[in-house]
Amino acid sequence: MELISGYPFWLIHDGLPFQYKKLLEDTRTSVVIIGGGISGALAAYYLTKFGIGCVLVDGRTIGMGSTCASTSLIQYELDEPLHKLTEKIGRARAFRAYQLSGESIDHLHEIVKEVGHINCEDTPSVYFSTHRSEDKFIQRECKARREAGFDVELLSASSLFEEFGMDARTAILSQKGMQLNAYRLTHDLLQFSIKNGLRVYDRTLIKKTEYRKDGVVLKTDEGFHIRADKMVNCTGYEVLQFISKDIVDFYCTYAVASENQQENEMSLKKNAMFWATDNPYLYIRQTRDNRIIAGGRDERFSNRAFRRLYDAKSKQLTKDFRSLFPGTCFKAEFAWGGTFGKTRDSLPYIGTYDKTPHVYYGLGFGGNGISFSVIAAQIICDLLLGNQNPDAGLFSFERKR
Questions:
Q1: Same domain, 268 and 298
Q2: How far apart are the first and last CA of the chain?
Q3: Residue 100: inside a domain, yes or no?
Q4: Model confidence at 1, in pLDDT bands (50, 70, 90)?
Q5: What are 81-129's pLDDT values in tens digits?
Q6: What one-character-per-residue DSSP string does 294-341 give?
Q7: Does any domain span residue 278?
Q8: What percent helix, strand, coil does the chain show, rounded to 5?
Q9: How far apart are the C-alpha atoms of 145 and 185, rounded to whole Å?
Q10: Strand (E) positions, 151-234?
Q11: How would you classify the pairing of strands 54-57 and 199-201?
Q12: Which residues are CB-contacts of 18 (< 8 A; sequence separation ≥ 6)?
């Protein structure tokens, strides 16, 4: 499956900051982690901190899957609005899912400080609508978030224009949010974990997995074997060759980055990030070098749409931004697309799967996949250490779908 197309900004911005070897010999480890994106890197961070011996492998160069295409808005909000999620899975479970996502932002603050990731900052989040028909929807969502313990404020059209220079009807302002560079953070996490004993191999494609009574044996495309007691699978959207294909629907999502505008003041007031209730979907953020990134305009996944539409989508996203922020300069420089998945309840899948013994999955499907990856790494770490995790059932494969 193609995971990216075009020219992802973060890949151009950071290039290949570190080099990793290809696995060219048989090896043995306690845990093998499959997937060298942000999910696998976070899993390695948590496991090695607890002294668990790990090998991490990826069939691509590190970070070159969905991670380098991420626009890296870190929010507690799920794809499904809280008041809607409550109707689907119940109030207690919906509130807990949102609260865990909020706590993951706090954990990320601690993590980025420890590993020395500098491209990170607190960012308010504006969940907005441009249509009168969405007024009651926004009000209900604001009420639900307050009841769940979040600090939120309902904004009017005049407040949005005065505070953010934005032409929209209404919005929810949340103070809990952050922006970072997921591609560079992946490398920073791996470099930190290597000091704790992690071994990393990229360009090492796993062709076969054998499940034994005492663990797993993986065979690479070069014919070498990895023997491990346990496996952690963080391959994201490519995991469906191992498990049921009905747990997620795939979409193509698109993004465009403007030219840098370092000669000007910051383009977006209060350096906020924005995302819309509206269809077509839209989200917006700003980078440290004063670029604006706009993304969304999702389509159901197909290889044809993925390869051919990102140029047209960049023009639409540019137009979307200019209509929301009249008078703000936006000249597109980079455009790209990425693979995106949605589950029916908007929650990730974390834990074991009955058909693949000794394997733990960390599948952060959804728009806030990085937050989910933190939650997954914590739960999997607990399970591997033999500890009870009270939230594991919320994201298990056995939950009602």
A1: yes
A2: 25
A3: no
A4: very low
A5: 999 999 999 999 999 999 999 999 999 999 999 999 998 999 999 999 9
A6: EEEEEEE--HHHHHHSHHHHHHHHHHHHHHHSTT----EEEEEEEEEE
A7: yes
A8: 35, 25, 35
A9: 29
A10: 152-155, 170-174, 178-179, 199-201, 206-212, 215-220, 225-233
A11: parallel
A12: 62, 187, 190, 191
Question: Does residue 226 fall inside a structural domain?
Answer: yes
**Token couple for 166:** 């934005």
CATH number assigned to the domain comprising residue 231 = 3.50.50.60
Q: What is the pLDDT of residues 173-188, one digit of tens each?
A: 999 999 999 999 999 9
Q: CB–CB of 90/381 below 8 Å? A: no
**Percent of the chain with pLDDT strictly greater than 70:** 93
Looking at residue 365, its pLDDT comes to: 81
Locate tokens 């992946």: which residue? Answer: 186
How does pLDDT run across 273-314, given as a tens digit for each residue? 999 998 778 999 999 888 999 999 887 766 665 556 667 888
Q: What is the DSSP string of 219-258?
A: EETTS-EEEEEEEEE--GGGGGGTS-GGG-EEEEEEEEEE
